[in-house]
Amino acid sequence: MKKKVILMLITTILALSVVMITGCKKEDESKADQPAKQELITLKWPTIWVGEDSKAPMIAALVDEFNAMNEGRYKVEIEANPDYDAYRNKLNSQIAAGVVPDLFVLNPDPTSLSFYEGDLLMDFAEELSGSWGDNFVSGAISGATIDGALKSIPYEVGYTPVWYNMDIFKAAGIPDIPKTYDEFFDACEKIKAAGFIPTSQMTGGTNAWTSMLWFSHIAASIGGPDVWEKDITDPVFVQAAEILRMMYIDGNTSKDAVGGDAGVSGGHFLAGRSAMFINGPWYIGRVKNDAPDVFKATKIGPAPAVEGGFEGAQIGFPQSNLAAGATDDPAKKEAVIAFMKWMTLPENVKKISMDAGSMFAVKFGVDDGEDVDLVQGQFMNAVNDSAFVNTHFQANFATDVVAEFGQALARMALGKATAEEFIQQIADKID
Amino acid sequence: MRVNKNWKQIILFLLPALILFGVYFIYPLGFVIVTSFSKWNGISAPVFHGFKNYIELFQDETFRLSMRNNIVWALVLGFVQIPLAAVMAMILARKPKGWKFFRTAYFLPNVISQVALAMMWLAIYNAEFGILNNLLEMMGFEGLTRNWLGNMDTAFPAVLVQQVFYIGYFMVVILASRMGIPDSYYEAAEIDGANVFQQEFYITLPMLKPILITTMTLALAYGMRHFESTYLMTNGGPAHSTSVMGILLYRNLGALNYGESNAIGAILIVFGGATIALIRWLFSRNLDADDGIQ
User: Fold this and answer.
1) Phi, psi torsion values for A363, nearest 5 degrees
2) In terms of CB atoms within 10 Å, which of A240, A272, A292, B64 comes out highest?
3) Which residue ranges does UniProt annotate as crossing the membrane (chain B) (predicted)?
4) Which chain A residues are closer than 8 Å to B250 by Cβ?
């Protein structure tokens, strides 16, 4: 019995080995008989620009066009990751495990830029030092370069002025957008009296996005262009926190703002319930499609200025860079570069921008006769009219500190912490 | 010690499973424990950090709160959800009218994804349009309406409660075991004059003891590693009030603090293992004593 079992196992293993070896040999022989032909290189691109994202249709069209142009040579396959936070966490885990996607979108911040360490990402410094680099706006390439390495290509940029629903302002009898915070809180009273919610806020999500942007605007207005060089415990940030706290009390925001995520804060604006909201130009497509009446009533303008502080502050930051996993295969590298060049081609970037409203680090011209979206035009004006552009809180602190912002904000909004304690909680996390 | 004469064949046949177990369980486990003593961002090489990650974690108020929340989760699931499931199984085992409908209805949430359920509860608890607040208003209890998931006093119970009532899975497991108890035991008890409650208390419960211990252990283990619904509904907020160790682990992964993250993972493993061992030890002593009933 014992011998039989062992004999059976050995026979099975031998038979499998023979099949595998002959199979491989036949495959090799058949390859040798054929004339040399370039193998199809498939690049996987896990991306967030799918589903409801306003850039999704044009991105998909450009990928299809690239695949058609390079049929038989290169093929880019989109892997849909519609959840931004999950995408980011998945990338972090993958990269830490040494498994870098062929292509991906990197949101530049102190945490994600640590991916520049080591040799996991492809370095585009050499390629972009040539004429390709001329496609980008001034400072974009140098801004994405660390110690001479350019491991992510600047792509989408974000500017986040305030979205004002002028129909609500009109209903509340307010003639124009508030220029100072005194005017802002006066407007809040009138908006509430008219039955609307003054501001959209949120403490949830991974970064309390909308409220984090309000805080960044207020801090920029008080502290000026160099505000992020100050220590977080500086009185500037305490003062900014106090103004943010006031936005959460006395019905100045929705009841579900504490714990609410981007769906909650954006949802109130889309539904025409809230009068003031902050988000970037990528939201234009969403408002245009989902809330056409609100879109018509939208006015893009600067955030109010703190009296005695700096006027004309704007918040802007590199939103999404394009990156790729490093490879030793020259053919694959060539395919990646071909795709990157395609995606950063000014006419292609223009197509995405005109369709979705997003703004990019790639230069493109708009002819006089071309129909630029009204809100997108206002975004451009808001940026052009600004006295200075600061980055936001998130761009200056590590991911865990950014996550703490929302938790600390909830505590302050619920009256369990003062503005000083809010700032201290963030400072403790930085330590 | 007597050695099985077929030991070579046994090893040969067990080898694939052992290799897979080693590669997919033992190695990652060892990796987590070793790197938990390091400072590591997942990109550069880990740097030995001694017990610093553990010391910092236990000094962190948020971690202690998360640990406490995990214990509450484990206790509530083990000692509230399982008894509820057992009671429901005992009722349905008596086949009242419509018992099949209720069996399916209670089990239904188990075939729906956690994400969909969390979204549903978010809609129920929403402060502006939530069904719960609307219901309270309709009943004249406007003073009780609140932002259930955005209030530090109500967020944790709100997340906990929605999970506790999903008894279907354990109910079906207990019900299957209950159906295996011969009817003759109950008929004999009835002849002896035992009422329904006495029958359940003196026949069903002792007979169900092994399955109750198993389900309770599973529920406690789930409570210790709980993550999904809290992450989906509150992400640990507001102000960390609903945080659990899994959320902190996940957040640290996102911040590339792999050393700290793995330290939380190691604590979870030790903590969960110890809790389960304790429960099994406590109950198995009684089980051994009750062996005569089986």
Assistant:
1) -80, 140
2) A240
3) 12-34, 71-93, 105-125, 155-176, 207-224, 263-283
4) 89
The complex's ipTM works out to 0.82
Q: Nearest to residue A139, comparing CAs of A318, A16, A346, A277? A: A318
CATH number where A270 lies: 3.40.190.10
**DSSP percent split of chain B into helix, strand, coil, nearest 5:** 75, 0, 25
Flag if A95 and B42 touch (Cβ within 8 Å): yes
CATH number of the domain within which B260 lies: 1.10.3720.10
The answer to whether residues A110 and A185 belong to one domain is no
* A111 and A171 co-located in one domain: no
Model's pTM, two decimal places? 0.83
Closest CA in chain B for residue A261: B234
Condensed to tens digits (0 to 9), the pLDDT of residues B203-234 reads 999 999 999 999 999 999 999 999 999 999 99
pLDDT at A5: 52
Inter-chain residue contact A254 with B6, CB threshold 8 Å: no
Indicate the average pLDDT of chain A: 89
Burial tier of B99 (Cβ tally within 10 Å: 0-12, 13-18, 19+): middle
Poorest-confidence range of B16-30, B99-113, B148-162?
B99-113
Structure tokens at A199: 């501001």
Q: Please give the residue of chain B at the shortest CA–CA distance from A257.
A: B150
In a domain, A323, yes or no: yes
Q: Taking CB atoms and an 8 Å limit, are A92 and B250 in contact across chains?
A: no
Tell me whether residue A238 is in a domain: yes
What number of C-beta contacts closer than 8 Å exist between A and B? Answer: 107
Query: Phi and psi (nearest 5°) for B181?
Result: -80, 125
Which residues of chain B does A414 touch, with a Cβ-Cβ cutoff of 8 Å?
150-152, 238-239
Would you say residue A109 lies in a domain? yes
Domain membership flag for residue B167: yes
Cross-chain CB nearest to B256 (options A114, A256, A417): A114
